[in-house]
Amino acid sequence: MSGNAIVSADELRKRAEDLVPLIESKAPLSEQNRSLDGEVVEALAEAGLFDMRRPERYGGHEVSAREMGEILSVISSADASAGWNTAVWAIGDWMAAAFPDHVQDEVFATPAARICVALSPTAVATEAEGGLVVNGRWHFVSGARHSHWQAIMAMAPAPDGSQWPVAALVPMSDLKIDDDWNTSGFAGTGSVNTVAENLFVPLERTLPMALVLQEQFASELNAASPVFRTPMIPTGAAGFIGVAIGMGRAALAEFRQSLPGRPIAFTDYTLQSAAPVTHFEIAEAALKLEEAEYYAWKMATVLDEKGTAGEAWTLEERMHNRGRLGRLVRLVAEAVDVLASASGGSSIKLSKPIQRIRRDMQAFSLHGLMHPNTNFELYGRSLCGLEPNTQYI
Fold first, then answer.
1. DSSP conformation letters of 235-287
2. What is the DSSP letter of 158?
3. d(Cα 389, Cα 44) in Å, to the nearest integer?
4. What domains appear along the chain, each with residue ranges and CATH number?
5. What share of the chain is helix, strand, coil (3-state, %, to 5)?
6. Of 105, 125, 197, 220, nearest in space to 168 by CA
7. pTM recorded for the entire structure
8. What mean pLDDT is predicted for residues 153-169?
């Protein structure tokens, strides 16, 4: 298999399914080492699964949001950290595709180029001849150790003399890594800090975020592609829905697989499957996951349809989209909690996938973009006729 051959989404999904045993077997090791196992990274790269949002002219696949979500759900059902990092790298490709075409020539010269992303402008940039000098650090940079480039954010001088956030592409070799990634969930994502010290970035590799958030991209060759003319935040959100769905599916499958022959301790039930409480629990979890998939694929379908039609998003649609994201995250988290709680005392063993899924889902829910309450508040402001209280819509 070649990661540079353009293949169908169905074929990519099949390749992901073929890799599930390997990813599952390496998940405990990735968690222990706090970074994805190298064999998993290379297998995903060889399968072309890091090229889902790489432009076609560089051998990418430009799959739709719905197709990407389904593929990511397969990877995430085996290991959520692997699914999360694959989603991050897909978003990194999408962001790189917004830069000038000659910059993309440099970035995508590397086969299966992996671009990690930091959306918070926690660094400072000063003007220099021909570019910017950046100093600062970025937190929670998933997949940094296995990346070739990073899309960074920094506060830089704006034309009116104020400060505004600017995105830039920098080689990972220009950054330092500060590893403080010791977490209860998503440990395998290796979401370390990255640090820039007097880093010069050519002006051509920078883009004002004000333009990116308004879909004013610098690429000419990507302008006609439905994949690359969608808003950044709905695109990013759609990149992660498959991770949540995959975790939910994995939790339900694990519970059902462990159910036959299992009793309920200190009761007369020799079979947990015979207890009415189990029927309520599994039905509740399954229906929550079914509802979550409705919201997930609704988000993906709207993004795909608007991208194909070249239709602009209204402010209300953007805020509603965040509301849907919050709802699906809440539903999956609740379903996983129900299944984990019903899995019995032996499920806390580190050898049992359900305990890792539960911790990973908690970490997912706490992410600033995913947090249900943050998303509900934003959508609620729209319903109350108020303006958003964030630019990240």
1. HHHHHHHHHHHHHHHHHHHHHHHH-TT---TTSS-S-GGGSHHHHHHHHHHHH
2. -
3. 38
4. 9-107 (1.10.540.10), 115-208 (2.40.110.10), 230-383 (1.20.140.10)
5. 55, 15, 30
6. 125
7. 0.96
8. 97
Asked if residue 275 has pLDDT above 90, the reply is yes
- Which residues face 199 on adjacent strands? 134
Q: How confident is the model at residue 5 (pLDDT cuts 50, 70, 90)?
A: low
* Separation CA 370–CA 363 (nearest Å): 10
* Buried/exposed 122-138: b ≥16 CB within 10 Å, e otherwise: ebebeeeeebbbbebbb
pLDDT of 6: 72
Beta pairing class for 176-178 and 163-171: unpaired
- Closest by CA to 295, choosing from 335, 325, 250, 333, is 325
Q: For the chain, give me the number of helices (H) and strands (E)?
A: 11, 8
Contacting residues for 364 by C-beta, under 8 A, at least 6 apart: 80, 84, 185, 186, 240, 243, 244, 247, 329, 333, 370
Burial class (CB in 10 A: 0-12, 13-18, 19+), 161: exposed
Contact assessment for residue 299 and residue 233, using Cβ atoms and an 8 Å cutoff: no
- Distance in angstroms (rounded) separating the CA atoms of residues 186 and 143: 11
Query: What does the alpha-carbon distance between residue 370 and residue 113 come to, in Å, rounded to a whole number?
Result: 26
How does pLDDT run across 208-223, given as a tens digit for each residue?
A: 999 999 999 999 999 9
CA distance 89 to 102: 20
Report pLDDT for 3: 43
- HEC sequence for 279-307: HHHHHHHHHHHHHHHHHHHHHHHHHHHHH
Task: Write out pLDDT tens, residues 304-343.
Answer: 999 999 999 999 999 999 999 999 999 999 999 999 999 9
pLDDT of residue 12: 98
Is residue 1's pLDDT more than 90? no
Look at residue 144 and tell me whether its pLDDT is greater than 80: yes
Cβ count near 310 (within 10 Å) = 11
